[in-house]
Specification:
six-stranded parallel sheet; 179 residues; Rossmann fold
Length: 179
């Protein structure tokens, strides 16, 4: 079973994280880190992230297992990824467990997927995305396709979740693949 770290930060779109956790449950060992701001946004968006079969890590606890390169995990996803946490990752400013685990991912050459959410982007956001990309992260913006005619917001979110799972190497049956 793969071991996957899911960092959830305070950008809009907590539904992406919830649907990813739904899809990963039972398929991977999940470590969840939820930032303080993510809890606030989750409350505004009416989404609960409680009760998953996962290890819930405290974002302030920098001595947690996922903070060390010697603790092996297959990949990390930050979804949604705020511009603040993007900045921390792009600049190696590892003062939260989410930023530290992402830093570990990059130095250990593990897969790191960032799902940034903001609009419009300013120059700082764009340069931070480029820096994170150049350091090895996959930048996967929360901009789902519509040619699949999604019938609900959940279906729309699942289009991004399907791409995340593909990049994590987790098999799934979400949506139809283009033939
Ligand atoms: C309701 C709400 C929605 C927000 N949406 C976004 C967003 O879409 N993108 C973003 O970068 N920040 C957004 N923010 C601001 C972040 O939550 C804020 O910058 C925070 O410091 C991020 O901290 P974190 O990265 O540790 O979670 C939002 C804040 C609130 C209260």
């Amino acid at each position: 079973m793969k071991r996957i770290v899911v960092g959830i930060t305070g950008a809009s779109g907590i539904l992406y994280a919830k649907r990813l956790l739904d899809a990963l449950s039972g398929k991977a060992e999940i470590h969840i880190i939820i930032s303080y701001a993510a809890k606030t946004v989750a409350a505004y968006e009416g989404i609960s992230l409680d009760g998953y079969p996962a290890v819930y890590e405290d974002n302030a606890r920098l001595e947690a297992d996922v903070a060390s390169g010697s603790f092996l995990y297959d990949c990390m996803v930050i979804v949604p990824c705020s511009m603040k946490t993007l900045s921390a990752v792009a600049n190696g400013y590892a003062d939260t467990l989410i930023a530290r685990a992402a830093d570990v991912c990059l130095k250990e050459r593990r897969r790191l997927i960032l799902v940034p959410r903001e609009t419009p982007y300013n120059r700082i956001h764009l340069t931070n995305m480029l820096a994170a990309h150049d350091a090895g992260a996959v930048i996967m913006p929360a901009s789902p396709p519509m040619y699949t005619n999604p019938q609900s917001v959940t279906e729309l979110a699942d289009m991004i979740v399907a791409r995340i799972l593909d990049h994590c190497g987790i098999e799934h049956q979400i949506g139809k693949r283009w033939q």
